[in-house]
Input
Amino acid sequence: GATMARRDKVKLKIEIEMDNAAFEDGNGYEVARILNQLREDIDTPDLYEGDGGTLRDINGNKVGFWKVTEE
Output
């Protein structure tokens, strides 16, 4: 029978620091806003190892990152 080629595990890592003013009132809403922005920014059918970017809060401050990695 056919065998599948072995593939490394591919992960999407997302990290958001929630300790600034944008998260003081309704931090869940700010996280959702950031993730919605990420959803819009990833406008491609395929992601590859090394793809990634910066996540910013409503005030434009860098609060995290996203990155595709392989193990």
About this structure: The chain is about 20% helix and 30% strand.
